[in-house]
Amino acid sequence: MSTILAAGDFDLTEEAPAKINLALHVTGRRADGYHLLDMLVSFARHGDRLFFRASADDDFSLSGRFGTLLSADAEAGDNLVLKARDLLRQAANSSGLDTPAVHIHLEKNLPIASGIGGGSADAAAALRGLMRLWRLSLPEGTLKTIALKLGADVPMCLSSRPLIARGIGEAIGLLPSFPSFPMVLGNPLVGVSTPDVFRQLSRKDNPPLLLPSQMPQGQGEWIDTIKALRNDLEPPARSICGEIGVLSGLIESESPILTRMSGSGATCFGIFADAERAKKAAASLHRQRPDWYFQVTETIAGEA
């Protein structure tokens, strides 16, 4: 990895928004071991950021609060951004398209293994950014295939818009009228193993995610709908990681509309009535636990 360059030295930038599981229902398990999920997913305006520039040789560098935690993986070539680059290059080259050397810089702002799709969001942003840098025009199906090879969450992150995902995450339906929510993200900076959380599930055939026959409209109706849903991974994650319960309680003490864990944890979120209340809550949480991660943000609305 080379010396980190300034952002202005790069040709283009691609955001990698945090993926927020507003609800996650575990509905079954396939013969190959993959769990079947129903998910209501939104994306935050806060996340990682990738920078791209033409280079004499392929290069990769890191910065950001959590960048050093990925250094060993990057040195070994075991980073999802690098895997995304290699898979996209392979697909493009097989179609006779040119993919010159590129320097990719990852600004890692999200905690590692935190249930908000950081690595998947980075891989998806790498695909979007390289498609632009290399001026590629590949069939949509090819890009989706590459994304799914990188991980079940990557196709969702490729969209980075409100959606419902089913199956292992590959069956996606966008929600164009979905509203934006002021939000505070929190993480105790304790890693939680996703396989361990799934192993602790008391049952794997829970009721599916069902929306009202009339699609909710506006923040209020969607909040009522989300409150009636759940995250089936939260109870087992809490049993493994006691900090999740403490974190959830801290967020709850700031009077959010809703508090829930995202994905397999340990990130929890609070949805607040407005941006000002979310800012005050984040500041209060920082004061109480300066050693933990808290971030005020808002989710990205659907593109009606």
UniProtKB/TrEMBL annotation:
Catalyzed chemical reaction(s): 4-CDP-2-C-methyl-D-erythritol + ATP = 4-CDP-2-C-methyl-D-erythritol 2-phosphate + ADP + H(+)
Enzyme Commission code: 2.7.1.148
GO molecular function term, any single one: ATP binding
GO biological processes: isopentenyl diphosphate biosynthetic process, methylerythritol 4-phosphate pathway; terpenoid biosynthetic process
Database matches in SUPFAM superfamilies: GHMP Kinase, C-terminal domain, Ribosomal protein S5 domain 2-like
All residue ranges annotated as the GHMP kinase C-terminal domain in the record: 228-287
Keyword presence, Nucleotide-binding: yes
NCBIfam families for the chain: ispE, PRK14608.1
Similarity comment: family membership: Belongs to the GHMP kinase family. IspE subfamily.
Annotated function: Catalyzes the phosphorylation of the position 2 hydroxy group of 4-diphosphocytidyl-2C-methyl-D-erythritol.
HAMAP family per record: IspE (MF_00061)
Protein name: 4-diphosphocytidyl-2-C-methyl-D-erythritol kinase
Organism, as annotated: Rhizobium tropici
Top-level taxonomy: Bacteria, Pseudomonadati, Pseudomonadota, Alphaproteobacteria, Hyphomicrobiales
Encoding gene, per UniProt annotation: ispE
